[in-house]
Amino acid sequence: MSQSTMQSQPVPSQAVVLTRRSPNQSQHCSICRQIFRQKLEKHVQSGACERYFCRVDNHEHQRVDQTFETLAAAKLWIVQEQLDKTLVIVSSSGETIAYRCRFYSKPSSKADPMRNDPEKGSLKKKTASFPVPDLGCRAVIRVDRVRVCQCSPEAVSQGTICQNSDSLIRLRGCLSHSHPTENQFLRMSKVCQDYLVSLLKLGMDKRSILRVYFQSGLAQEQDLKCITTQDLRNLERKFIKKKTTSQNSTKVEDEVDLNASNICGQARNDAKKEFQRRAQAQIDELRAHLFDSSVAYQSRISLLEKLEVLNSETRLEKSVFAQDKRHVERDREECRGRLLTLNQDEPILTKKIKMS
Predict the structure, then answer these.
(1) Are residues 55 and 100 in the same domain?
(2) Environment class of residue 356 by beta-carbon count within 10 Å: exposed (0-12), middle (13-18) or buried (19+)?
(3) N or C terminus of the chain: which is more exposed, having fewer CB within 10 Å?
(4) In the structure, what pLDDT confidence band is assigned to residue 74 with cuts at 50, 70 and 90?
């Protein structure tokens, strides 16, 4: 569902009679049908109905005012009307989009003196090969979701109290450009792009496509973009996969691909065998190294075992020698004791012998 009004003349100023309302009631503007809670009087006195559509007074206005159920429907309307030839999106947030003429450049902020210092050089900005001229055009379209009055004309004429409103996507703006449109700077519309892509998919050559395009209804419009073979090549590169039309070249390419695949397969097999051979050689080398290491380890273990046996035997011999030494010392002490006893008993024995 969409409702639209397109006007080429200024909106007639109507006297809006404000109606006293209760705090929970909404009011509508009888000119733009916008819903207000408190600021209807300020809206009417400031002439915001005019300024919302266009803020330029030196051209003949071509206002557009449409309502849609969804944002996708509003975008589709812009594409169908081919407004994307001159309008570009400058801001987008949620269900709010602002379109502006591409021949308008936003004034740059205050220049940084350090960027243009002759001693330090200047910062060069990257520019396109064919820059779009800045003509200061203020053509703009705003799309946002607002509450729009749905009252009947009779109810609107009776007062400003709104009895029926709905939340809709509203598209408003002015399509009048403050400059003559130059065809070489126009963009290719989505409708034109889809038409040319469909011809390319049919397999037509580029000259035939240009001939058909310039004879079609799209080319009869006044603001026509100059389509060239370069544009067709760009579309072909972007949307269509290249296909060989010649059967002979296709066969040759198939044979070349087959030979190349065979050569590549043989090369892969040879490389695989060489890799396996080198891997097996490395495995054998590792095994030999491990075997040598194990032999050396076993020999080292046997040597350590022999050393352990010798150490144990040495300890045993030392213990036996120490024990024998202790026995010898004990025998010596016993002999010494006996000699002392004999020395003590010798005078007594001598006396006994003499007395006998």
Answers:
(1) yes
(2) exposed
(3) C
(4) very high
Domain that holds residue 218: 188-243
Using the predicted structure, report yes or no on whether residue 85 has a pLDDT greater than 80. yes
Coil, strand, or helix at residue 116?
strand
The Cα–Cα gap between 174 and 63 comes to 4
Co-location of 232 and 154 in the same domain: no
* 175 plus 30 within the same structural domain: yes
- Burial (CB < 10 A; 0-12, 13-18, 19+), residue 144, is middle
Cα–Cα–Cα angle for 188, 105, 73, rounded to 5 degrees: 45
Mark whether 44 and 157 lie in a shared domain.
yes
The reply to whether 249 falls in a domain is: no
Could you give the percent of the chain with pLDDT greater than 70?
60
The Cα–Cα gap between 250 and 253 comes to 5
How many domains would you assign to the chain?
Answer: 2
pLDDT at residue 120, as a whole number? 46
What per-residue confidence (pLDDT) applies to 70? 92
- Could you report the per-residue pLDDT of 298-320, keeping only the tens digit for each? 776 677 777 777 777 777 777 76
- Flag whether 139 is in a domain: yes
